[in-house]
């Protein structure tokens, strides 16, 4: 993979003799895969130079992909000056975070309105397809792209690009979720763990580093990282190279030299392998495959292009008691996003909560005496004990020792603006409406269901021939739960189960409903990091699934009727030998299923 920087400045373009070496143009990065896929990340003023270079290339027309992290002007201002968008024979796919109320095309058209610009978006002659993204995965040619929400005053996505055995991450603009400078003993504060996992093991991370630690105190809430944070978090998760970018417009070349020199000396003195440099216009990096990192992803992850509007329409927020000023900021943010908000002055005010009016998100104030009881009663109001309503705690600082910790909350730290609250609401809404995805029905569902029913095994009693297999699986893989699961029309039913007392669960919650769509073993190393399952009630509640591996059980006619599956409450991996062992045990289960029903033992 080839990476070239065309714009590295943050917030404002800054041309002049003191920014010559690192550049004065705002964010723009060009990426080429080994197969020739062209990807442009962000379209700040640096895009002008890239566009001029592209139209001079000998191979025309151009099919390119533009990934926009967010729509602040320093990241889109180059679009009206990006020459390849005006060439009729060219094709461009433009991707950006999905707003709750406006498409990316409408947003980009806004900066080219008559008031601001002499040419409208209709003047772009190329064939352009617009894609509104949420957090998830999509393919661009031979490149797998993972989109992940960053912490910024506008809804912002970071992008992880993987192809040809290499990976790079673009994380700009991003502010640490924990505003205290200290990190825990593992190097990563709990609130920043998701961001760390997004970066883990990358060959190159291009990370926001607009401020230094000494400057940050006066910039809290502005949506940017410090150099120190970027270095520490990348070093902690095994990143190979870190490019510091989004240089402050007030920072001159010599100051950037000093920052890089200081960081490099410190890493060298401690023997850390992380290589750090400052992104500079014109700098080109070739990424070559390194030894495998052991990081794996499911083959069918949540699509970042999934339509989510119906889920957003049903979204609602319950606001607990808090001071008038804070409550008004949150009310204004919710109103701006057209999200229903209901206030609860005390615990009695929210009882009873009708099932049809249960909130999608609960926001409470840590200083409220009723906060813990409110959280408990809201969660107990569910008819489904496994459902967990997300909780956000408003506080002056993060407090893991708070009595609210049992609800695994997110934090909204004072002071915050209406703009910042609005952005966080967007991220919570889009994340919680999207991170539990029921499996689609197989194309042959009618025939598959008929084949399952023909076996005559559904709702039969316990049998030793199946229990023997699940006992062996539980012992051999050292997992607390092992099952022979059959996927029925509206449920998954367990012919044999070790470690659970239930006999069935709804199909829309079933990991096995995803596994029967596979031709091979489906492995989910950590359900909390998988967009298909992170908010699944079986993950957020009992039995707290973190690891899943399922072998799809096929009949002789090819119909897949269920799985032999393994479940653990902790993340883990399976090597090739273990996967082969699960496959062998699955074949034994298939043989027993094919032989038809027998006399039950219980």
Please outline what is shown here.
This protein is 26% helix and 23% strand. By secondary structure, it is of the alpha/beta class. Helix 13 runs antiparallel to helix 16.
Topology overview:
Elements: E1 2-7, E2 28-32, E3 38-41, H1 47-55, E4 63-67, H2 73-76, E5 91-97, H3 104-111, E6 127-133, E7 136-140, E8 143-149, E9 157-163, E10 166-171, H4 193-199, E11 204-208, H5 213-216, H6 227-236, E12 241-245, H7 253-270, E13 275-278, E14 284-286, H8 309-313, E15 316-319, H9 324-336, E16 340-343, E17 361-365, H10 371-380, E18 391-395, E19 410-413, H11 418-432, H12 445-455, H13 464-477, E20 481-487, E21 491-498, E22 504-506, H14 511-515, E23 522-524, H15 537-540, E24 547-554, E25 560-568, H16 576-594
Structure description:
- Helices cover 26% and strands 23% of the residues.
- The chain is α/β, with parallel strands linked by helices.
- The protein has 3 domains: 2-286, Metallo-beta-lactamase, Chain A; 309-432, Response regulator (Rossmann fold, 3-Layer(aba) Sandwich); 445-594, Beta-Lactamase (2-Layer Sandwich).
- The chain has a 7-stranded mixed sheet with strand order 6-5-4-3-2-1-14. It has a 7-stranded mixed sheet with strand order 7-8-9-10-11-12-13. Strands 22-21-20-25-24-23 form a 6-stranded antiparallel sheet.
Task: Label this structure with key terms.
globular, Beta-Lactamase, 16 helices, about 600 residues, Metallo-beta-lactamase, Chain A, alpha/beta, seven-stranded mixed beta sheet, Rossmann fold, 25 strands
């Amino acid at each position: 993979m080839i990476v070239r920087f065309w714009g590295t400045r943050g917030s404002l373009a800054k041309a002049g003799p003191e920014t010559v070496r690192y550049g004065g143009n705002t964010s723009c990065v060009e990426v080429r895969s080994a197969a020739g896929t062209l990807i442009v990340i962000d379209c700040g003023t640096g895009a002008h130079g890239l566009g001029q270079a592209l139209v001079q290339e000998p191979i025309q027309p151009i099919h390119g992909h533009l990934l926009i992290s967010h729509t602040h002007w320093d990241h889109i201002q180059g679009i009206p000056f990006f020459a390849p968008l005006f060439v009729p024979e060219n094709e461009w796919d433009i991707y950006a975070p999905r707003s709750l109320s406006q498409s990316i095309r409408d947003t980009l058209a806004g900066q080219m309105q008559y008031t601001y610009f002499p040419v409208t978006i209709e003047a772009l002659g190329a064939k352009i397809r617009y894609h509104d993204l949420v957090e998830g995965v999509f393919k661009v040619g031979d490149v797998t792209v993972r989109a992940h929400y960053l912490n910024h005053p506008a809804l912002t996505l970071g992008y992880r690009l993987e192809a040809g055995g290499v990976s790079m991450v673009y994380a700009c603009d991003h502010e640490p979720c924990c505003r205290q400078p200290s990190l825990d003993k593992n190097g990563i504060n709990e609130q920043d763990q998701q961001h760390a996992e997004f970066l883990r093991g990358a060959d190159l991370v291009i990370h926001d580093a607009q401020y230094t630690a000494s400057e940050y105190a006066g910039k809290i809430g502005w949506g940017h990282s410090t150099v120190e944070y970027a270095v520490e978090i990348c070093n902690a998760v095994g990143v190979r190279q870190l490019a510091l970018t989004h240089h402050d417009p007030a920072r001159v070349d010599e100051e950037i030299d000093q920052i890089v020199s200081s960081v490099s000396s410190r890493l060298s003195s401690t023997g850390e392998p992380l290589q750090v440099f400052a992104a500079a216009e014109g700098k080109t990096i070739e990424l070559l495959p390194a030894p495998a990192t052991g990081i794996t992803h499911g083959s069918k992850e949540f699509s970042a292009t999934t339509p989510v509007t119906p889920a957003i329409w049903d979204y609602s927020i319950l606001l607990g008691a808090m001071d008038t000023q804070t409550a008004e900021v949150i009310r204004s943010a919710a109103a701006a996003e057209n999200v229903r908000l209901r206030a609860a002055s005390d615990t009695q005010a929210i009882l009873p909560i009708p099932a049809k009016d249960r909130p999608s998100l609960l926001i409470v104030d840590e200083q409220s005496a009723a906060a813990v009881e409110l959280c408990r009663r809201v969660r107990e109001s569910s008819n489904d004990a496994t459902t967990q309503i997300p909780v956000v705690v408003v506080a002056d600082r993060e407090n893991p020792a708070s009595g609210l910790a049992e609800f695994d909350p997110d934090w909204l730290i004072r002071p915050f603006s209406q703009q910042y609250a609005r952005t966080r609401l967007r991220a919570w809404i889009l994340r919680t409406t999207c991170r539990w995805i029921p499996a689609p029905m197989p194309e042959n569902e009618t025939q598959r269901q008929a084949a399952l029913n023909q076996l005559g095994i559904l709702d039969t009693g316990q049998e030793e021939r199946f229990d023997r297999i699940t006992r062996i699986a539980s012992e051999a893989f050292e997992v607390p739960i092992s099952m022979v699961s059959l996927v029925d029309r509206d449920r998954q039913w367990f012919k044999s189960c070790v470690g659970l007392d239930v006999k069935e669960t709804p199909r829309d919650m079933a990991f096995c409903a995803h596994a029967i769509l596979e031709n091979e073993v489906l492995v989910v190393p950590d359900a909390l990091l998988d967009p298909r399952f992170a908010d699944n009630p079986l993950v957020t509640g009992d039995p707290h699934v973190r690891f899943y591996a399922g072998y799809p059980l096929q009949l002789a006619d090819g119909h897949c009727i269920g799985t032999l599956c393994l479940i653990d409450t902790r993340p883990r991996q399976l090597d090739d030998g273990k996967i082969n062992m699960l496959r062998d045990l699955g074949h034994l289960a298939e043989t027993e299923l094919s032989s038809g029903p027998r006399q039950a033992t219980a």
